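Recap from last week: sequence in, structure out.
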Amino acid sequence: MAQTMVNSRMDEDLKKGMEQFSKEMGLSMTADPFYSEVNMERLRKAVADAKAGKLTEHELIGVGDD
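Predicted structure tokens:
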């Protein structure tokens, strides 16, 4: 399923209502899940592991690997 981002302007009361509706539907109004706290923590751990030399071969992606 393709995804797209939708931006809109609305007053504060409508925004609060939309946030509540989205939450009840299991959706998020955030723009980019890449910056979620869960993902950021995973990235921080990956950086720390890389600096400590703890990478394993299956975690590396090689350019041109078939």
